[in-house]
Amino acid sequence: MTKIQNVTSAIINQGVLPLYYNADEAVTIEILKSLYKAGIRAVEYTSRGESAVSNFAKMVEIRNAEMPEMLLGIGTIKNLQQAEAYYRLGADFFISPGFVREVAEFLIPKDLLYSPGCMTPTEIIEAENAGVTFIKLFPGNSLGTGFMSAIKDVFPNLKFMPTGGVDTTRESIESWFKAGVSAVGMGSKLVSKELMLAKDYVTIENETKKVLEIIQTLK
After folding, report:
1. Which residues of 25-35 are buried (b: 16+ CB within 10 A; e: fewer)?
2. Is 90 exceeded by the pLDDT of residue 200?
3. Is the pLDDT of residue 94 over 90?
4. Is 2 left (phi over 0), alpha (psi -120 to 50) or beta?
5. Rounded to 5 degrees, what are φ and ψ at 23?
6. What is the CA radius of gyration of the chain?
């Protein structure tokens, strides 16, 4: 199995890709541990703050020491320089809010999963032609399940994951899977600012377990 296939399988098997960012290194690590205890084996860390690079480096260190099964992805990659930096840190997969050709050309030949955000058929076609196999539908709350249903037959060889607006409820998750997605991305709906501020790692773990259980009943 290639690295791209391995990451794709891990995300699809769990059915949800948690994503988060916290400026505090200790909080970042505790959330990672909570997600791991809940059963998560692939997670996206968002490169949005000044401490993202150093925090991600620590995540890789802790993962290697304590949770070798965990795949660490980096999100909000908007240019080649960012992709190169996190490649050197050992990121397992890369996610963008939009399609960046230079990033695709850098990562895909290295057998690293690159999932760009797309919201039009034109963008999806461009990404597919560049070798992308896993599309992030973004923003999911603007596109809606109807968009996914309408395009899925046009792109039979692609996997889709909406991010943005997917709730932790069965109704929300089920509607997306019925529309044809392979997984759902969940940020603040799962790892909320309130829970991070309160350092309520038990609730993060329990809520994640509930989402995983919902998804398993839908498969």
Report:
1. eebbbbbbbbb
2. yes
3. yes
4. beta
5. -70, -25
6. 16
pLDDT at 155: 98
> Can 136 be counted among the known catalytic residues?
yes
pLDDT band of residue 219 (cuts 50, 70, 90) is: confident
Concerning whether 205 is annotated as a catalytic residue, the answer is no
Q: Which of the residues 136, 189, 205, 207 is marked catalytic?
A: 136
Identity of the residue numbered 64: N
- Listed in sequence order, the residues at least 6 apart from 37 whose beta carbon sits closer than 8 Å to its beta carbon are 205
Structure pTM? 0.96
Q: State in Å, rounded, how far the first CA of the chain is from the last one.
A: 23
Spot the catalytic one: 25, 37, 44, 84: 44
Q: How far is CA 92 from CA 66, 74, 209, in A?
A: 16, 8, 23
Q: What is the pLDDT of residue 170?
A: 97
